Amino acid sequence: MNNNFPKDFIWGTSTAAYQIEGAVNEDGRSKSVWDVFCEQDGNIIDGSSGIVACDHYHRVDEDVALLKNAGIKNYRFSISWPRILPNGIGKVNPKGIKFYSNLVDKLLENNITPWITLYHWDLPQCLQQKGGWCNREILDWFSEYAHVVTDALGYRVNNWIILNEPSVVSFLGHGLGFHAPGLKGEDNYLASVHHQNLVIGRMYRELKAKNANWNIGSSYTLLDNPADASCKDNRASAYMDCFWNRNFFDPLMKGEYPSIMQDAFKPWVQDGDMELIKTDLDFVGVQHYNSIYAKDDFEKGLFGTFFGEKPKDIPTTDIGWGIMPQDFYHCLSDFNQRYGDKIPLVITENGCAYYDKPDDNGKVDDARRISFLESYISAVSDAINDGVNIKGYFVWSFMDNFEWSEGYAPRFGLVYVDYDNDCKRTPKSSYYWYRDFIKV
Length: 440
Ligand code: FCB
Hints:
By secondary structure, this protein is of the alpha/beta class. Helices cover 38% and strands 14% of the residues. It has 15 helices and twelve strands. Helix 7 runs parallel beside helix 9 and helix 8 packs across helix 10. The protein binds beta-D-fucopyranose (FCB). Beta-D-fucopyranose binds next to loops.
């Protein structure tokens, strides 16, 4: 496959703190909602947690060398809030700052541009005890945290992602209880959506006022949500579309919630909120893996809507997620039609999970990942050719890691991590493929 992308196209890879760092009890870090969620029986398929993860906390040099050797010029990672502010707010933990400061230095020394996600789901548990995302005070907590991080790193870091996938935090974490903090119900769902939307609007303004040159965005899921075969109409599909896409993009781009959700959000919306949420971010991060099928279910679902069955004939990865690059193309062009092309998009995550393992020679030949990436990157190229304003693409993930409630079996990495053998790293075939593909 030839790389016909513009010369200044941004190629990178992504990770997140809780999924790779480990060292959860070291150097003054306090517990996050994910530590606590993992401790509760039945929440994680294989009973695992991020206690060790990829042990990245102790292997920064090795991991930066792996990035460099793949010619990766942009690396997206997240900061663990409970490492920086173990009490959520207040006293700063210098050892937490030091860890990220060293990581940033190492990246820059190797000509790798850092892209920092301020929040990739690991809220300090002490703030969860005060209501977490359901408490509007989180606007102030988040602001304090974001200023501590940007004060410490901002003179070396230019690219900021405020939140990662608020849809997942709200739907899986606060509506259905499948992710931390394990809350359920429509009220928790609605409060967490609105407060995350407010945080994005407020933090964009505050950080931009701090440094107008910073490139500041936030990352969102962007997914197709067809109705499954059991549905008589598209009611469930319209709600799924709100849960994954429109409850975030409509307020951000148009300053309003989708009409079918407006009454539900009313109790949480105060004067001036929608004006604050409507924001011209510098870029919108979009992340795509799969299409989510919807069905009516008034018992298990939220607003009568739950996951449906995908058609049997769709090819899937090892964890059952559809391989449908045409749906990715459709999401991108649909986004353009709904919201226009004024704000550039950066694909801040895309990738696939297989149960990769080394062969007898120790080689991890993940040909299926290479073909997945080729087809999805082609979809990005088609979308650009058809007028969608896309500036970059980041593979999820740089290395295999802790895949939240799915544990360690799904392997998303370009680099294989041998969890039974001291987290030994082995670059997979896709690592070399990506290196050659992005070479300028
Ligand atoms: C996304 C998450 C990321 C990773 C991928 C597979 O929803 O942002 O942390 O788990 O899915």
